[in-house]
Each structure stands twice: as C-alpha cells, then as structure tokens.
Amino acid sequence: MKYIFLLSGDYIGLAKEEILSLFDAKEYELSGRLFIAGLSSGEKNLLRLSKRLALTKSICTFLFECKINELADFMKRFDWNSVYKDDFCLRAHFLDGIGNNTIKNNKIQKSKKATSKRIHAGSNPPEFISEKSLAKHVWYSVKNPKVNLENPKTRIELFIFGNKAYCGLLIFENNEDFESRKSHLRPFPSPSSLHPKIARALVNMTGIRENEVLLEPFCGAGGFLIESGLMGITSVGYDINRLMTDECKKNLRYFGIINSKINNKNALKIDGKFDCAATDLPYGLNSNVISEDYKGNWKLGRINKKIQKEGFIEDLEKFYLGFLKRLRKKLKKKAVIVFPSYVDYKKLLKKSKFRIEKEFSNYVHRSLTRKIVKIS
C-alpha cells in the first residue's frame, strides 16, 4: 500500500529519517514536504506506529498523482465510490516549499503571504480551480453524497507542489501537544533541553520498539526519557549530577512516566546491555563535562566559559571517546548522538568502531551547531 506523509516543515531530513526508522518503506520519494512511500506493513500497524511520529503532520492513503493541468480530468475519472463512506470533505493544500517559502538551515521558513486554496490549473488556458469546483466531481460520482466540513468520514486531501497534484484519503492527523512539554513548562526546567518534538524524533530515529530498552547516558532534566516514556518505551537514564537526577525524577512523575529507571552514576561506568541509545552530549562550553580523572566528583569537573583553559576541546574529545568506547560494548542496535560541531566527532566514532549511518546539522546560534548522528 502507498501512503502520503505530510511533513511538518521543520527539519525535513530528520522527518524523513524518522519515518524510515519506524516503517519498512520499500520505495519512497520526497517531494517538498510530501514523503510518499510504499509500506509492506498493514494499515493497522501503520496507525499504531504513527502515534509516535513527531515531525509528520498527517498521513493519507495514496489515491493518485497528476500534473495540475490534468487534475480536473483525474477527479472526473477516479472511482470515488471505492473510497466514499457516509459523507465527505475535500481540502486543498498549496505546498510551494521552493517558491513562496524558503529553506534555511534545513527548516522551511514560511512566507507571510497567505496560503491560497485556489489552484492554478495551468497556463493554457489560464483557469483557476477552487475546492468547491473540485468537490463537485466527488458529489456527482458517489451514491447519496453528503458534505460534512466538520468531521467527515471521507476526508479527501489534495497537495499541490510545483506543477503536480497529489491526492490522498486522510487516515491520521498528528494532534500531539509538544508545546505543553517544553522545558520552561516542566517542574524543573533546563535551558539546554531540546524541543520535545526533536527529542521524540531522535528517539524514533534509533528504530527502538516498545518491547526494547532505551539508554540515555546523560539524562539531565529528562527530555528524552519523557518522550520515550509517553511512547510506552522502557528507558534507563544516567547522570553523574545528583541534583539533575533528583529533578529528572520530578519531571518524570509530573508527566506520569513510570517505565524509566534513573541512576546517579557516571556514563563511563554504564552497566548492562541496551537495545538503543539517544542522548545530547554535554557540550563543555556551558555544561558539565566529566573526565575520568575526576572519579565521579562533578563539581571538580565543571567546565564553563569562566574557567575554560587551553586544550579544553582535547579534554572534551578524550571524555567523549571514553564514553563511546563504553557504549560500543553495551549497545545492541543503534544510537542517535548529538555532538557539538567543534569536536571531531567522525574521528571519535571511527576510533570507537562505530559506523555513521546518517548525520544532520542543526544550527542553534553563532557558537553552536548541533551534529545529529545516527550510528550502529
């Protein structure tokens, strides 16, 4: 079965990788914000896993695609009785991600110009087709037609990108309220926490399943653990700072997370085996960085801008390498690690015998770009 995933517009590359990590896509293409894929699993499994998605707005079963100037003919010829149930609504979405919008730092910057629901049908002749005129083709084709604009059983979605139109039947809409879980709204906020939407996407990129265990070796305030817990995934978090582990537990309790175990322990001394791992490494410029030499005393190991010394990047890389070598022994499958761009993460991963599967850049501010790396 073929499906259309409408991506949220943030971090297109991450959105694509999140889908590929959760679903077995045999063939796929990316057209602007539309990810179109043939999936081998049934729709029931698709709907179950779709609830985990962070960077996808909606999913439709694929009906047809055509050039814009062929749209009216395709609408007339399509067998709408084969998909129609009770009542219907048709919505058109103009996704000019390259024209009206621009792409910067892997994000789509939206145009101030309002999205039009009137679709140019081609320049020969210059004709405009409205949602209403398109819906008439459905109305005259089905038995007992009925329009329902509020809660239709049959919701037909048209996506216009470039000179092409894609038509699908809506089966999933993502209504997850990520904004309510942003760091400053938690009992214990942490300014360095990733946005919940990104944290969830990175957990999903590991490909972890509900019966597996996720490791978060630098759990901090618990951003990754909150998202994995809400998806029903069992997790184990480590942090050497007792204050952080205590406050992380408060955050987890606040969101009702009970399937996460928190350890006040050095990440260089990880115990047990784990299926997957996801973490945002301490950056050193404004975070706690713990070297083996400090033997668990995080106060002695604190490095920040005020006390930076020459060679701190070398010390940071030494610490990262020690952690990666430890992780290599404990990891069964895949991990997604966020590095600061000012370290040679490729060298460190090669030394620790990890293979880079995918990598992405996320610009934060002038002195920091995150490097998101999927490894195995």
Features:
about 375 residues, alpha/beta, VC0802-like, Rossmann fold, 2 domains, 7-stranded mixed sheet, about 25% helix, elongated
Structure description:
The longest helix is centred in the last third of the chain and has 19 residues. It is built from nine helices and 18 strands. The chain folds into two domains: 172 residues, VC0802-like (2-Layer Sandwich), CATH 3.30.2130; 198 residues, Vaccinia Virus protein VP39 (Rossmann fold). The two termini are 29 Å apart. It is elongated, with a radius of gyration of 24 Å. The chain has a seven-stranded mixed sheet with strand order 2-3-1-4-11-10-5, with helices on one face. A seven-stranded mixed sheet has the order 14-13-12-15-16-18-17. A two-stranded antiparallel sheet has the order 6-7. It has 376 residues and is α/β, with parallel strands linked by helices.
Q: If you average the pLDDT, what whole number results?
A: 87
- In percent, how helical is the residue content? 10-25%
What's the main sheet like? 7 strands, mixed
CATH homology superfamily of the largest domain: Vaccinia Virus protein VP39
Residues in β-strands, percent: 25-35%
CATH architecture of the largest domain: 3-Layer(aba) Sandwich
Task: Give the beta-strand count.
Answer: 18
Rg for CA atoms? 24 Å
- Compute the number of structural domains: 2
Distance between the termini: 29 Å
Query: Given the helix and strand composition, which structural class is it?
Result: alpha/beta
List the uncertain runs. Answer: 97-127, 285-296, 298-307
Supply the CATH class of the largest domain: Alpha Beta
Strand order within the widest sheet? Answer: 2-3-1-4-11-10-5
The sequence of SSEs as H and E is: EHEEHEHEEEEEHEEHEHEHEEHEHEE
Q: Under CATH, the topology of the largest domain is which? A: Rossmann fold
Number of helices: 9
